[in-house]
Write a structure and sequence with these properties.
The complex is a heterodimer of chains A (about 325) and B (about 210). By secondary structure, chain A is of the alpha/beta class. Chain A is built from eight helices and eleven strands. In chain A, the strands form two sheets. Chain A has a seven-stranded mixed sheet, with helices on both faces. In chain A, helix 3 (about 125-135) crosses helix 4 (about 140-155) and helix 3 runs parallel beside helix 5 (about 170-185). Chain A is globular. In chain A, about 35% of the residues are buried. Chain B is mainly alpha-helical and about 210 residues long. Helix content of chain B is about 85%, strand content about 0%. Chain B has helices spanning about 5-40, 40-55, 60-70, 75-95, 100-110, 115-150, 155-165, 170-200. In chain B, helix 1 (about 5-40) packs across helix 6. The longest helix of chain B is centred in the middle third of the chain and has 38 residues, at about 115-150. Classes of the chains: A alpha/beta (about 325), B mainly alpha (about 210). The interface between A and B is medium-sized, with 27 and 19 residues.
Chain lengths: ~325, ~210
């Protein structure tokens, strides 16, 4: 009988959708506070700019050793501000940030920040750009050279050591920037939308590269992005932020096994969920604020006149 | 122009003074420019002074130089120094102020500090501006030297010019003038152009030909 088949089809369809929902729920769960001391502790951090824009409000985040945390949010949500505060390039107007137990007081090679642009020194070759900070750290010429070449090889730029930055493409410059940062072996790697300026193809290559390198060393990384897919491909934890005022909306753990493929259907579904959540938060924050509670009407007072005094000209013919 | 002996000697004398004065002004002007750019207090104090003095034609330093140093080599070198010092300082300060703040932030996060920062990042980053300043300074130094030598006759090309005038020998005067132009052009067009092109191409500031 036909309706049996229809019924079965409906059930299996429903079952499929339920499984998807539950499965998706299993893959993206709220983070659980881990035991043990945090590598990076962000406590009640707030920052207000001089023009009174509240960039951050009451942000509390703990990052543990070996975690890849993505700060995800639209532009203006304070994620870059928070990252700069972690890097020590900016002091927040309120709260504390400690890394490895020490309060952050200035920038340093233990918390290297990768910028949106490669920020290579234009007069130095690729190799020199990598050895220069190593020499500043105290390595000898030979050690620095060897280590730099190792990391240049890791980012697949062997053979390009003697080129100058202006002779490289954007993606290659970013790879040099990555090699430079990794060679310093920072305890925390901070990345501010480093692949934002690259084309989609190069960007996905960089994701693969970063994933493979990270899986090798398991460095603690804080990665800022506005691209939901990118956050899901790269991060163990995705901290969704919203702006006005900058705050944490959700702290989610991504449980998809690595290495991750950006076209994985789970990732696509999850990114839709997050984007919807972000969209709702945006809409909520741009609504007019709820009207102030009205003062209770004093019922005993004279009622407001029901009619505005009649100002119309007296009818023609009325005696003047 | 059969005065090869005296011409060469005059050229050497002039160039010697110029070199002394110029390198001295670069040695003072470069660090001074960097200091003014980096230290708020010094900038507030010295920048107006430097800008104001820059308006003074270098030859006006000659009377003071003669008062202080007498009729000596030092007086002319002093005039040369004052002629180019301020231009170099201002251009250096400008160069340092125009360094991309991103590079400064990068140096901070990479842990590059102290002398390594100044010598390895700040000055190289400001170099295109500094080279412009050095070129300008050279120009001013050259003019200051000639003015000084003409007024205060003490050997060198200026003296040859005066000699020519005194003996009413136009060809000598013109000859020395040609010589001065050639020397100036040689250094300006050849040496500085070469240095400028090298710096700019390394820094990636040249258009690909």
């Amino acid at each position: 009988m036909p309706w049996v088949h229809i019924g079965r089809a409906m059930w299996s369809d429903l079952g499929q959708r339920l499984r998807e929902r539950l499965g998706a729920k299993r893959l993206l769960v709220p983070s659980v506070r881990r035991a043990g001391p945090a590598k990076i502790a962000v406590k009640r951090v707030a920052h207000t700019f001089r023009n009174e824009v509240v960039a951050l409000k009451d942000v509390d985040i703990d990052v543990h050793h070996g975690e890849f945390v993505c700060l995800l949010g639209p532009s203006g949500c304070g994620k870059s501000t928070l990252l700069y505060a972690l890097a020590g390039l900016m002091t927040p107007s309120g709260g504390h940030i400690t890394v490895d137990g020490e309060e952050v007081s200035g920038p340093g090679p233990d918390r290297v920040l990768m910028f949106q642009e490669a920020a290579l020194f234009p007069w130095q070759t690729v190799l020199q750009n990598c050895t220069f900070p190593l020499r500043a750290r105290g390595l000898s010429r030979r050690e620095a050279d060897g280590r730099a070449r190792e990391f240049i090889y890791l980012v697949q730029l062997s053979g390009f050591e003697d080129l100058l930055p202006h002779q490289l493409s954007g993606g290659m410059r970013m790879r040099v920037s990555l090699a430079r940062a990794l060679a310093l072996d920072p305890s925390v790697l901070l990345m501010d939308e480093p692949f934002g300026a690259l084309d989609a193809q190069t960007r996905s290559q960089m994701h693969e590269l970063l994933q493979s390198i990270w899986m090798r060393d398991r460095k603690t990384v804080v990665f800022v992005t506005h691209n939901v897919r990118e956050a899901l491909v790269l991060g163990d934890r995705v901290i969704v932020m919203a702006g006005r005022p900058g705050r944490v909306l959700q702290d989610l753990e991504v449980r998809i096994p690595r290495p991750r493929d950006p076209d994985d259907e789970d990732i696509v579904a999850l990114s839709r969920r997050i984007r919807d959540a972000l969209g709702r938060a945006q809409a909520a924050s741009s609504e007019t604020p709820p009207p102030l509670a009205k003062e209770p009407r004093d019922e005993t007072a004279d009622p407001v006149p029901a009619r505005i005094p009649d100002r119309s000209p007296p009818p023609v013919g009325a005696g003047l | 122009m059969a005065r090869d002996g005296s011409l060469v000697a005059a050229v050497l004398r002039s160039m010697g003074r110029l070199a002394q004065g110029y390198f001295l002004s670069a040695a003072i002007g470069l660090p001074l420019g960097v200091l003014i750019a980096r230290r708020e207090g010094i900038r507030l104090a010295l920048r107006p002074v430097v800008l104001g003095l820059q308006a003074l034609p270098s030859i006006c330093w000659l009377p003071l130089a003669i008062l202080w140093f007498g009729l000596s080599e030092q007086a002319i070198v002093f005039v040369v120094v004052m002629g180019s010092l301020l231009a170099i300082t201002i251009a250096t300060e400008d160069g340092v102020m125009s360094v991309d703040p991103l590079l400064m932030r990068a140096s901070g996060t990479l842990g590059i500090r102290g002398w390594r920062f100044y010598a390895g990042v700040l000055v190289p980053a400001a170099l295109p501006g500094i080279v412009t300043g050095l070129k300008l300074g050279w120009s001013f130094a050259w003019r200051a030297l000639m003015a000084g030598e003409l007024l205060f006759v003490a050997g060198g090309l200026g003296q040859l010019l005066q000699q020519g005038r005194e003996v009413l020998d136009a060809s000598q005067v013109l000859g020395v003038m040609v010589c001065i132009v050639l020397l100036g052009a040689l250094v300006d067009q050849v040496l500085f152009r070469f240095v400028e092109v090298r710096v700019r191409s390394r820094w990636g500031l040249m258009e690909a030909v």
